[in-house]
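Re: weekly structure request thread

Next one in the queue (450 aa):
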Amino acid sequence: MNRRNFLKNAGLIAAGSVIMNPLESIAQNTLATGRKTRLAMVGTGHRGSGMWGKEVVESYSDVAEFVGLCDTNPGRLEYAKKRIGATCKTYTDFDLMMKECKPDMLIVTTVDSTHDEFIVKGLNMGVDIITEKPMTTDEQKCQQILDAERKSNKKVLVTFNYRYSPHRQKIYELLRDGRIGKVTSVDFHWYLNTRHGADYFRRWHRLREKSGSLWVHKASHHFDLLGWWLNSEPESVYALGSLDFYGKNGAYRSSTCRACEHKSECNFFMDITKNEYLYDLYCKNEKFDGYHRDGCVFKEDINIYDKMAATIKYANGVQVAYSLTAYSPYEGYRIAFNGTKGRLEAWIKEDRAVPGSDSGFDEITLFTNFKGAETFRIAQSEGHGGGDIRLKDRIFRYPDAEDQYKQSATSRDGAMAILTGIAARKSIETGEIIRISNLTDLTPQAIRIS
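Done, posted below.
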């Protein structure tokens, strides 16, 4: 009996919950009913109406159907329904939607700080959950999700699409194959450019109380990759961070780009009126909730960091030096794994205009001690490095397929990713090393058990 089947049959319990691939729960429900999976979604902003709305309807209507859409903004909700191409009812009352529509699966794509509310309610109502990352924004909400899942017979799947990209999968394979021996340390540095990075400071993400800061909203992607690549969980975090570029650092500011008197001189001016989709989705519906999609990146209320660095110790002894910069001239990341037999490096340039990034390939270089180097070229793909479509195929079309690379992320994976960022945030505030085990009832594992 292999390890996977042993754990499944033995009903391994970790901190009170059975470790089970969330897609196994979804597959069991789909195969048992023999009909299309009934989907409900809460949150119809850009991610909801696009990746989890329109793209799902266009590609998976033969196996899944929307039976309900919900949002607090009625105008945005109706526009999103048309863009998605759904024929279902729409709701501003979440509980009513769940009661009337009786979905099999709930997709949560709301503001990060409200994920926990809908995840917990959905589990209590007996449905499987697909939630956008981050799973939630603080340790108390994280614990509530873990507790709710343990009490239910349903599962939470966190949509870490980066795991599914061919390039990152290749790194996983090389590490699993022991090509650099035992990994001892990692250097991981992520760069957000002055287009993508700035956009977080225009939107609700600029407020820590809504996004948990970029430590949680953005970096949880990176921390999940680290845990997956290293096959371990974080044990402690020490971090530094500050707001050095956006927010109060600007020479001038406005409420929105549209209202700004400095359009001609500001390099960050965004003319949202030229983007028909964003204008129709957000600007035409501002009257319902006052949310501005083209907020000024220098607004005084910005309270997240734009420069961050952390030292993370994993339970298997690996040390990680991590940084995130949100105002770089280019987009991408550099990563290097140091091992007892060599070193694995990658420099991913996500700006196609940057020299060396337009070859159509991303490269991984494997250096072996005393033997030289070997380069692997992976074809570049759209949609988070090709991860989006592979993730959705896995969820909707092949939920019962073998998870060879352990890419399906459980609630435990989602928790460990956000707890790393939450610990970093707390470390900055206190000046102390924060232990992950002090945040929830999860005990970090040297070898991942999910």
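The longest strand covers residues 183-193. The two ends are 18 Å apart (CA to CA).
Next request, please.
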